[in-house]
Amino acid sequence: MRSTDQTKEQIIFLKPIFRQMVWGGDRLGREWNYEIPGSDTGECWGVSAHPNGDCQVREGMYEGELLSELWIKHPDLFGNTGLDRFPLLVKIIDAKADLSIQVHPDDAYAKAHENGSLGKTECWYVLACDEDARLVIGHNAKDKAELTAMIEEGRWTELIREIPVKKGDFIRIDPGTVHAIKGGIMVMETQQSSDITYRVYDYDRMVDGRPRELHIDKSIDVITAPAGRVEESILKADELPQNTMNLLCSCECFRVWKTDVTQEVTFDQAYPFLIMSVIEGEGTVNGRSVRKGDHFILPDGYGEVILRGKMQLIASTV
Ligand code: ZN
User: Fold this and answer.
1) CA of 104 relative to ligand 1 center, distance in Å
2) Which residue blocks in the chain are alpha helix, DSSP H?
């Protein structure tokens, strides 16, 4: 028998939730071994307590509980942050076709206009992409007046700023940034727990015979003009030092790391909680087997973490 507090030693494994999308594909099944609901599966919500997709604990003493319930009943597991909801959402996106051109509000705008929802800052780690893959980040309008005119006149090719991307690129998308993931790209997204998206343009696509709703006025309200420089939001994170936790991003919403384990990584879980997702390979966390596609949370007070094997992980906390 151990005298230490058992709850602090539990790794909280979560069951992912899948969402079918007009632009989704089947790679989450083929390449990630998930049981997907169809060949148009666009998103795997690996760690989420959002009402639109609340993950269940997969095993252990909290098996079957929703992450949102665990957050309320056991705030001690998450460092007693005092936050009113589980703050982050981690998903894998398989874009077989282009996603709509979109923008997210910040916290203040979402609170006022979206029933108290959080705004959305997000970031992407590019897991895989075609040779000539491109993303939309930002726009070419010099100010709000030009932005409004370009949107109202449908001058999309002039407006939209596209950039080439490679596997391992890490991109931060602040609220107010026009963006779109284009076909042939898979990303792991770490974001605020929010589902508020304003669609600016959807390539005039029809879904069940009609176009998806656009949110032009709200988009114009929240889009930052002029856009920030692209170089400021992209980091090459493919070949970082191995066997260490590489910090990719630290902002007021989250901190995100990548680690490439080839032997062993040891660190102290010194955060309120630490989300980890295995994005490649397999190995162990303190002796417990994990593999590509596993998503888990190391609770507050977990202590020393020892990762072994051949695997890559993305980690995050607030
Ligand atoms: Zn987005």
Assistant:
1) 6
2) 27-30, 67-73, 107-113, 144-152, 156-159, 216-222
